[in-house]
Structure formats: structure tokens, C-alpha cells
Write a structure and sequence with these properties.
mainly alpha, 0% strand
Length: 219
Amino acid sequence: MNLDFTAILPSLPYILKGIGVTLKIVIVAGLLGFAFGIVLAIFKISKSKALNWFADGYTSIFRGTPLILQLMIIYYGLPQLIGFDIDSYTAAVAAFSLNSAAYISEIIRAGILAVDKGQKEAAMALGVPGNRMMRDIILPQAMKNILPALMNEFITLTKESAIVTVIAVDDIMRRSYIVGGDQYRFFEPLIFAGLIYYVLVISLTMIGKVVERRMRQSD
């Protein structure tokens, strides 16, 4: 077997710098996707048919098409319509945000519907306005129920972020591929990239368990 991991040792700092790029995309896209996902979830349970149709149509499109297609449309196709280029980082964040919002909205909607109806009835009896009831009573309880699913979506987002290499974002995967091309050895740097992703996922899983435990203790 022609394997020599020592050959890529000088390139490890270069690959490790990709962690910051990956996390920057994942964190920003995750937060934006979460915020938009809440809006979509509220649209889905709204009494307005127009909002229902918009949210359902949005979710259907972004869940029914490949993420890499959405990314390439934004990066390569959208400039044709708007008349100027979009940088690769912005395109990556936009694609992941819009895609995550579709999945997160379903998670949040399920969490909201799982909250005991008695909570809503009690709030209405006390004269709590609808917006305040959703913000202060319904959503906090829903978040406790859906935290594991949200963490799973965030972990999935972290792994799927590797596809940004197709639009030349210098993340972990692309840097590993570049090192492989320079060294004419792809197995070693790609295995190292896989190890980095694995550590990130395990770390996120542990963080999620700690947060979930503390939220349960606060009940």
C-alpha cells in the first residue's frame, strides 16, 4: 500500500484553516435558516390560506430539489438575472439558509402543534395577545421538544457544507483536495478531512446533549 501520512504533515495547518471557513458558513446559515424557519412555521399554522400555500410551496420546492442544484443556481444562474456576480461565500450561505429553513420550519411546526392546547387556552383566557403568546409561551415550550431534531439538522448542515467545494469556497474539503493535487496523494488529505468532520459532528452532538440536559433540568 502506497500510503504516507507524513507527506501531508506540512500541509495540515493549511487544511485546518478550512475549519473556520466551514464553521462560518454553517453558523451564519444555521441562524438565518432558523429565523426564516420560524416565520415559515408560523405561516403554516396561520389561518391565512395565502400564507399556508406560500409556506407549503416553498418547503416543497426546497425539500424536493437537490441542495447542490440550489447552490449552483444561486452562484452560477442568478447572476444571469441580476446582472452581477455573487461571491462564493454569499452564495453558500444563501443556499444553505434557504434550504435549512424548509426543513427547520417542519420541525418547528411539529413542535408548536405538540404544545398542550391548554397552554393556548389559558393564555387567551388571561387576555395575552397572540404575538406575545407565541413568543413567550408557545415557542419556548416547543423549543424544548424539538431541540434534538434541531441539533440533528445542524449536524447535517455541517456535513453537507462540504459541497461548497464545487463553487471554490476554501473550506475543509476543498483545501484537502488542493493538497491532494499538489502532492499527487488524495487518500491521506481526504481521510484527514473526514477526521475533522467527524470531530466536528461528535463535538456538536455532545454540545446538543449538554444543552438538552440543562433545558430538562430547568423544567
